[in-house]
Specification:
Elements lengths: L2 H25 L1 H8 L3 E16 L6 E14 L2 E8 L1 H5 L8 E6 L7 E3 H5 L2 H24 L9
Antiparallel strand pairs: 1-2, 1-4, 2-3, 4-5
Helix pairs in contact: 1-5
Keywords: Membrane, Transmembrane, Transmembrane helix
Protein name: DUF3592 domain-containing protein
Organism: Alteromonas oceani
Length: about 160
């Protein structure tokens, strides 16, 4: 493989990493903006529920566990509760009742809120984060080594 082809693939790798990073920021942008603007409160996990869901599709039916948590938080003396899909984090024991989490709320309607950590670690963002990490792990060292090397024509 020629140096020009290697650099072309390196550009594709880094472009993929930047694209995934941009999509992750778009998916979690409202939550990050609310957190930066100070529209956040500390919430307490009040309840953790596990539901068994039957999944039907191609192949045989199977069961899936859904972990949902109830988070209670206060804004201006009012108490609110939200329900959040805890994904696999509650199932792995990373979230338990009584844990404190950051809740980002809408200033015009504090009852509308999202748990900061789950907004950032939703399944889509988790997958994109892994792809971004691998792209940059592979791409940046090569870019750093090749950035000033001239391209030679190989025959």
């Amino acid at each position: 493989m020629s140096t020009a082809q290697k650099r072309k693939y390196l550009k594709y790798t880094l472009a993929t990493g930047w694209l995934c990073l941009f999509i992750m920021l778009l998916l979690s942008g409202s939550v990050l903006t609310g957190f930066i603007n100070g529209n956040s409160a500390s919430g307490t996990v009040m309840d953790k529920q596990v539901y068994i869901e039957q999944i039907r599709g191609a192949g045989s039916p199977r069961e899936s566990e859904l972990h949902e948590i109830t988070v209670q938080y206060q804004v201006a003396g009012e108490t609110y509760q939200i329900y959040a899909n805890a994904h696999i984090y509650a199932g792995m024991g990373l979230i338990e009742e009584g844990d404190n989490l950051i809740v980002v709320y809408s200033p015009s309607n504090p009852a509308q809120a999202q748990v900061l950590s789950y907004a950032l670690y939703s399944p889509m963002v988790s997958i994109l984060g892994y792809v971004t990490f691998v792209c940059f792990l592979v791409g940046f060292p090569r870019w750093f080594l090749w950035r000033n090397k001239p391209i030679k024509d190989e025959k």
